[in-house]
Design a protein that fits this description.
With 104 residues, this protein is mainly alpha-helical. The chain has helices at residues 2-10, 20-27, 33-42, 62-74, 86-89, and strands at residues 18-19, 51-52. The chain binds a DNA duplex (13 and 13 nucleotides) through residues 1-2, 19-21, 24, 29, 31-38, 40-42, 48, 51-55, 58-61, 64-65, 68.
DNA sequence: AAGATGACGCCCG
DNA sequence: CCGGGCGCCATCT
């Protein structure tokens, strides 16, 4: 599970973002958003900054949160008040249900 | 085996 | 928009 989640995170292209729940589902573990968090906290070498909360919210608190915004902005992701426009930057994982998609 | 721990998500007031 | 409460679930004490 751990590897599948990380592999999924690594698939998010630069300039795009995905939600914790979205990654979990795309990895094959719907509802396992918390495991995505666990994986990101644990693993290294993954584009963790491209994973955000539902609705495009930045959930990472403190310094790390600021770094995340910085990194995203650097990749061309617009951020408005701790928010990312998912319809604009949400990554669409392939082979995923329409109702979900990336914006989901 | 039981309880605690999250970068969560969703609903309600 | 902001809290608060509850469900979730692998992993770790």
């Amino acid at each position: 599970m751990f590897d599948r989640i990380l592999a999924t995170v690594r698939r998010i292209p630069k300039g795009k973002v995905a939600t914790y729940g979205g990654v979990a589902e795309a990895a094959g573990y719907p509802g396992a958003a918390r495991q995505v968090v666990w994986a990101l906290r644990t693993a290294k070498g993954v584009p963790w900054h491209r994973v955000i909360g539902a609705g495009g919210r930045i959930r990472l608190p403190g310094e790390a949160g600021l770094e995340q915004r910085l990194r995203l902005r650097t990749e061309g992701v617009a951020i408005e008040r701790d928010r990312v426009d998912l319809f604009l930057h949400g990554h669409r994982f392939r082979q995923q249900r329409e109702t979900e998609g990336s914006l989901n």
